[in-house]
Amino acid sequence: MEETLYWIWFLGLEKISVKQKNLLLDRFGSPQCIYPMSGESLKNTSILRKENLDYFEQSKSLEKAHRSMDYIKDNDIHLMTREDPLFPEALRNIYMPPVGLFAKGDLALLKDSIKIGIVGSRNPTVLGKKYAQTFASALSSVGMTVVSGLAAGIDGQSHWGSVEEIGGTIGVLGTGIDICYPRSNQKLFDRMAERALILSEFALGAKPLPYHFPQRNRIISGLSQGVLVIEARKKSGSLITVNHALEQGKNVYVIPGAISESQWAGGNQLLKEGAKLVTVPEDILEDYIVIDQRSKKDHAIQTDERILESPDEQRLYTLIKKGYRTIDELVVQSELPVNTVNSLLTMMEIAEIIEVKYGNIVLV
């Protein structure tokens, strides 16, 4: 309990960046060890600048952390730190991994192997809204989990399309988990807290500041195996999520739009740059092994098990089936040397067990 209190305090240090927090934890182990340190001691690490050190010294109070801890207990909110076994494995290896996540709802959704991020305009056309609901519902109805940002527009429509389906949906906030933004999404926010999952890396009470939303986008792409773009302008914030997805080796899908309409221009440009054009949900489903499970009530995505002669090939096969699609992910999860993984994947491709599609490894 005391350890949680210090984590809440640490996550609430808003003027110390996520990168700096990770470096401090790497050096000193835990917030409980960091709290009693003097500014002079931290100065010698070169992790914090002078203005950070002054802020750190002025933030030596646990009063707000006590109030926050009472709130999360009273409202069934779970705090997952980067040390927590429940912390999503997919987020541990992304650029600037979150130090911790506040979560409300169904934590089992984090264990689902296949997740698709859906992003797009906050002011979509009627057609864009229709696409968002239709695709989200179709993907989630066969067990895939839809991940989005609980913003107005495409985000909200995607959550509404999937919140009642088997795969469910995850909303990643750009505010504290105690704040619904925009307020017009309050009904959706409450439904997702009850039937799906809401996540935030920001401290309780954190307001919807402009830089919070680009920051949370790396979590949307980090949780997802692929990202679907629906109706995005050329300078849309959705493209930040796409950039994160590309850096993380994820699939990028785009629903094409009219070439004369500016609100589709960002997505159309992505198609010119090599994103996969999709017109029906099956265009996404074909990249994953998904069995229609609409009659089942759990979140598992199952495929026929294949037994391979080599134990190491079997290990990789199982990991790919669970949703790990890149060489980096397979190296980390299998704990095999990278040259061994490359060699095994080559043999598996020759044997037509796997194939590489759009930079990702999928089962045949």
TrEMBL record:
Residues 79-287 form the Smf/DprA SLOG domain. NCBIfam families: dprA. Residues 310-355 form the DprA winged helix domain. Gene3D superfamilies: 3.40.50.450, Winged helix-like DNA-binding domain superfamily/Winged helix DNA-binding domain. Pfam families: DNA_processg_A, WHD_DprA. The lineage of its organism: Bacteria, Bacillati, Bacillota, Clostridia, Eubacteriales. This is DNA-protecting protein DprA. It comes from the Bacteria. Belongs to the DprA/Smf family. It comes from Acetobacterium fimetarium.
